[in-house]
Amino acid sequence: MATTYAQRDYPPIPEIKRIGVIGAGQMGAGIAQVAAESGFEVRLNDISRQALDAAMSRIDFFLGRHVSKGVLTEEGKQQALARIVTTESLEPFRDCELVIEAATENEELKRKIFAALVPHLKPEAIIASNTSSISITRLAACTDRPERFIGMHFMNPVPAMKLVEIIRGIATEEDTYQAIRGVCEKLGKQAVTAEDFPAFIVNRILLPMINEAVYTLYEGVGTVESIDNAMKLGANHPMGPLELADFIGLDTCLAIMQVLYEGLADSKYRPCPLLVKYVEAGWLGRKVKRGFYDYRGETPVPTR
Ligand SMILES: NC(=O)c1ccc[n+]([C@@H]2O[C@H](COP(=O)([O-])OP(=O)(O)OC[C@H]3O[C@@H](n4cnc5c(N)ncnc54)[C@H](O)[C@@H]3O)[C@@H](O)[C@H]2O)c1
């Protein structure tokens, strides 16, 4: 059998036992939880100690819910929590076989993170990005290991959602792809493979729908409640599009629309000015308790 370039030049991928997660927001915390529940040792990194503490109390709460539903024992919960180490440094990632980046959706920021991460990694470690939309090929190219770089797009909330989209960059090697399929299986997730085009499969379809819902509000076709009710009752969606936008985070929604707009150079993807305005106001959705809905009271009410 012919020796491939990868077999010649890259160390083989070891068994993946330790996973580093960068970014302890809603996605990073969910990924850390699922990985720890599945038996992986986890290092969870964020620049903000407050985000790390909030992530650990959310993980504690969600694991507690699994205990009360009888799907996890109290001992299992304590063992999972003990498998997660939080850190504001990237140094503890030195022994990880896989690092999953789940920081804010901003290409410049992600590039800086990878530049800072690479010197700490062992040569055989795989880097995955949970980006919702940014080119895996471009992100891979700013590391020393594009062959060991891949997109691993989890869905929100991570513990509840079955899907992981796997995206190969142009240089991603087959053994990297197979190793990541194996990790998805161990995490109890189902993988779907998407090509490396802006926003991949799920968000290429979902985000223009959400953006259109914001235009519908902007143009006065409906109110926040009528738009959400129309899509829940008329299209059988479990959540209305504006409620879903709040759940995803309006900054993330806007960032994905900008990637689609610029990456596909098609005006049909232009972000709705009202979405821009909400982000400029800092009304980013559920995570800050205000977006299209205001979550500060007992039940959510439209913000405007
Ligand atoms: N929200 C969703 O529904 C969803 C779904 C799938 C994928 N994603 C993707 O996951 C990523 C994270 O999204 P999120 O919703 O968890 O965002 P979030 O705003 O909840 O969390 C982002 C976290 O990244 C941290 N961070 C920022 N700069 C950092 C740095 N230099 N080093 C370490 N941490 C840093 C922030 O402090 C914050 O805690 C994005 O790429 C997003 O596109 C989001």
From TrEMBL:
Top EC group: oxidoreductase
Xref: InterPro entries: 3-OHacyl-CoA_DH, 3-OHacyl-CoA_DH_CS, 3-OHacyl-CoA_DH_NAD-bd, 3HC_DH_C, 6-PGluconate_DH-like_C_sf, 6PGD_dom2, NAD(P)-bd_dom_sf
Name the UniProt record assigns to this protein: 3-hydroxybutyryl-CoA dehydrogenase
Positions of the 3-hydroxyacyl-CoA dehydrogenase C-terminal domain: 200-295
Keyword Endoplasmic reticulum belongs to the record: no
Family, as annotated: Belongs to the 3-hydroxyacyl-CoA dehydrogenase family.
Signal peptide: none
Keywords: Oxidoreductase
GO molecular function, one term: 3-hydroxybutyryl-CoA dehydrogenase activity
Name of one Pfam family that matches: 3HCDH_N
EC number from the UniProt entry: 1.1.1.157
3-hydroxyacyl-CoA dehydrogenase NAD binding domain span: 19-196
